[in-house]
């Protein structure tokens, strides 16, 4: 999302079959033959609270459907807890399909899937 010449929000996602060395991406790749993986969502501090996150996710789901991909995946921290992310993803139909410890055992993620 741009405002003038400035990028104020973006979402980075990968399809299956890419060489991406993320333990979370690899977890999904081992279980789902066709998926879209949300790696990160960034919204500038000056633009938070303006519903840009939901805008990016609606666009992502539209892209997934147009690309004939019916599985959208992501993860968020449960240790330390990220309740805001849990609520956000739940509103888009994500549900937990697994969990794992990352960052040398210092953090735990909830591995989530939603149907596009």
From TrEMBL:
Family annotation (InterPro entries): Acyl_CoA_acyltransferase, GNAT_dom, UCP028520
The keyword Transferase appears for this protein: yes
Keywords: Transferase
Superkingdom of the source species: Bacteria
Keyword Transferase attached: yes
GO molecular function: acyltransferase activity, transferring groups other than amino-acyl groups
Name of the protein: GNAT family N-acetyltransferase
Organism: Lysobacter soli
Lineage: Bacteria, Pseudomonadati, Pseudomonadota, Gammaproteobacteria, Lysobacterales
């Amino acid at each position: 999302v741009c405002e003038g010449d400035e990028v104020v929000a973006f979402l980075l996602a990968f399809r299956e079959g890419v060489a991406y060395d993320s333990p979370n991406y690899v977890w999904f790749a081992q279980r789902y033959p066709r998926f879209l993986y949300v790696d990160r969502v960034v919204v500038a501090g000056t633009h938070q609270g303006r519903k840009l996150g939901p805008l990016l996710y609606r666009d992502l789901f539209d892209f997934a459907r147009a690309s004939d991909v019916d599985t959208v995946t992501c993860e968020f921290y449960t240790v330390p807890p990220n309740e805001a992310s849990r609520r956000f993803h739940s509103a888009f139909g994500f549900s937990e399909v697994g969990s794992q410890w990352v960052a040398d055992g210092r953090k735990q993620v909830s591995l989530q899937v939603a149907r596009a």
